[in-house]
Structures are given as structure tokens and as C-alpha cells.
Design a protein that fits this description.
This protein is mainly α and 187 residues long. The chain contains 7 helices and no strands. The longest helix has 29 residues.
Length: 187
């Protein structure tokens, strides 16, 4: 149940990112344009980030499920939990401040969610992958998937929005099917 819920909620979240949240993110270079978008789409902005919070919670649930199935290290779930704390802090800040506080909070919020939270989720995923008996093809797939996560974190850290967008698409295009596959494989 956890892997399928994670796949579905993360699919919804990435679609929301592409079609609802993107105009308010650093992929749009003008901060004024982003503020205007958030102001004129405040309900959608807030609901969109709430969707991401649910996706993050499902990821933590999936990681706990995965750790139990492969007897992986407890620290993997701890690292992911620290990631969700960073993620939710950023997303709550973006929800609460809306357009009025956007200029002040957005740089830190996007750093927290993109670099810190995603980096911790990626590190936890790598730990669990290393604890999972996988064939060479699945291990190669996982390596490419986690490389996308590392690329996303790096791009967010150095504030390279185009690479953040590309790495996000790459990561989720691989992670969502991974959740479904892993759920079937580790039943």
C-alpha cells in the first residue's frame, strides 16, 4: 500500500508542480512576475504546496515500509524524517506568506525543499537501495534515479532553476515507476 500511495501522491504533486506551481517558482526569472502569479492564484498556490506535503508524508511512509522489508538501516528513515522537516518548513512558509512575504521567504524555502530536503530524501533512498537485493539492471536504474536526485539537489544549492526543472522531471519520471515496481517486488 505505501509504495502505491507514494507513487500516486508524487505523480499528483509533480503534475501540480508543472501546471499550477511552476509560474511561482524560480524557473520564472522575474521575482515580480512570480509574486503577481502567487497573488492572483493564492488558493491554487496553497493547495499545490499542501499536495507536496502529502507527497512527502507518503515518501516517509514508503521509506519506512521499504526499510522494514529489506531490514535496511534505521538511519535511512531518520534521514528522510529530517528531510520532511526541512520540506514542510519550506512549504508551510510558502503557504503562509503567500505573495506578501514571497520575496523574503522564497530563496530560503526553495533552498530548503530543493537542496536540503531532496538531498536528504536521495541519501535515504541510496541507503535503502544499497540494502536491497537487486539485479544489475535494477541497480543501474536506481543509480540513474538517485543521480537525478543528486543533480536536483546540486542545482537547487547553486540556484540553477533550469537544471532544477530538468532534474525534477528526470527524477520523478524514474521514481514513480520505481515505487510501483518496488511495491510488487518486495510484497
Amino acid at each position: 500500500m505505501a509504495p502505491l500511495a507514494c507513487a500516486v501522491l508524487n505523480l499528483i504533486a509533480v503534475v501540480v508542480l508543472a501546471f499550477v506551481l511552476a509560474p511561482g517558482t524560480p524557473v520564472v526569472t522575474s521575482v515580480a512576475a512570480r509574486e503577481q502569479y502567487v497573488a492572483s492564484h493564492l488558493f491554487e498556490w496553497r493547495a499545490g504546496w499542501a499536495t507536496w506535503m502529502l507527497a512527502a508524508a507518503s515518501l516517509l511512509w514508503m521509506y519506512a515500509w521499504w526499510r522494514a522489508r529489506v531490514r535496511g538501516p534505521d538511519v535511512a528513515v531518520t534521514v528522510a524524517a529530517i528531510g520532511i522537516a526541512a520540506d514542510w518548513s519550506a512549504e508551510i512558509a510558502l503557504i503562509v506568506t503567500g505573495a506578501d512575504g514571497y520575496r523574503a521567504i522564497a530563496p530560503l524555502a526553495f533552498l530548503l525543499t530543493g537542496a536540503v530536503a531532496n538531498g536528504l530524501y536521495t541519501a535515504a533512498g541510496i541507503m535503502l537501495t544499497l540494502s536491497t537485493p537487486l539485479g544489475p539492471l535494477a541497480r543501474a536504474y536506481a543509480s540513474l534515479m538517485w543521480a537525478a536526485g543528486a543533480t536536483l539537489s546540486f542545482a537547487a544549492l547553486v540556484s540553477f532553476p533550469l537544471l532544477v526543472a530538468i532534474a525534477t522531471a528526470w527524477l520523478f519520471a524514474m521514481f514513480i515507476p520505481w515505487c510501483v515496481w518496488l511495491g510488487r517486488r518486495l510484497r
